[in-house]
Design goal:
The protein is α/β, with parallel strands linked by helices. 43% of the residues lie in helices and 22% in strands.
């Protein structure tokens, strides 16, 4: 059974979300606040594939829950729900480790489609990590291990989310190739993703903070102006 954690303090919205996710084939674990969400996560021993988190909640807000879940589990898929259209809310959630965001109001079909897409990525990653191969891709001082889904720089592990790993895998498979934002979006988030391309830029910013010697002057993930990005691991 596909298992998802839904954290939303407004009962009417939570019921609406839960009903549609159940119809979509999910086992839903409900939480009405951030503290309860973490408690439910622990009660299920972390056996949750995706978390849907409302941003604006009393007490522990969605950003704090996102940060804590990501600290506990680098593989869980996280989608932020926000009633605001301000870019800062979206960027903040992504920088804290969220994989995607959905802005209220949203249609049931859009929500379930976004959850389905993320769930597929999480499940695929789990299958890959338990496979019987140990393929590695090397690029300069970097090594990408496809089984453990780990990135090493000079032998030191760099913690990546599922989305970040998929972006790096795409880069490593196409060294020196200018990849458009659209191609990265389709490769990582799926052909039918209905969100905005800026999600690519935010994830690139987050990756640069993790892998570059100096994020403000990146030399590995290079911007190709007017198009997207390219990987240069041989620097």
């Amino acid at each position: 059974m596909k298992k998802i954690l839904v954290c939303e303090d407004e009962a009417a919205i939570r019921d609406f979300v839960v009903i549609n996710l159940i119809r979509g084939g999910y086992e839903v674990i409900e939480a009405e606040n951030g503290e309860m969400a973490l408690q439910k996560y622990d009660e299920n021993n972390g056996d949750i594939d995706v978390a849907l988190l409302d941003v604006m909640m009393p007490g522990m807000d969605g950003f704090q829950v996102c940060k804590e879940l990501r600290r506990r589990n680098g593989d869980i898929g996280i989608i932020m729900l926000t009633a605001k259209t301000q870019e800062m809310d979206k960027i903040t959630g992504l920088m804290l480790g969220a994989d995607d965001y959905v802005t209220k109001p949203f249609s049931p079909s859009e929500l379930v489609a976004r959850v389905d897409a993320l769930h597929r990525r999480v499940v695929l990653a789990k299958k890959t990590s338990t496979g019987n191969f140990s393929a590695e891709i090397k690029s300069g001082v970097f090594v990408l291990n496809l089984k453990s889904r780990a990135l090493l720089k000079n032998g030191k592990i760099i913690e990546l989310t599922q989305v970040e790993f998929q972006i790096m895998e795409y880069f490593f498979s196409n060294p020196g190739v200018a990849l458009s934002r659209t191609s990265i979006l389709k490769h990582v988030w799926g052909e039918n993703y209905v969100g905005e391309e800026k999600i690519v830029d935010v994830n690139i910013r987050r990756l640069r903070m993790k892998i570059e010697d100096k994020a403000s002057t990146p030399k590995y993930i290079v911007t190709v102006w007017g198009l997207g990005y390219k990987w240069d691991g041989k620097v």
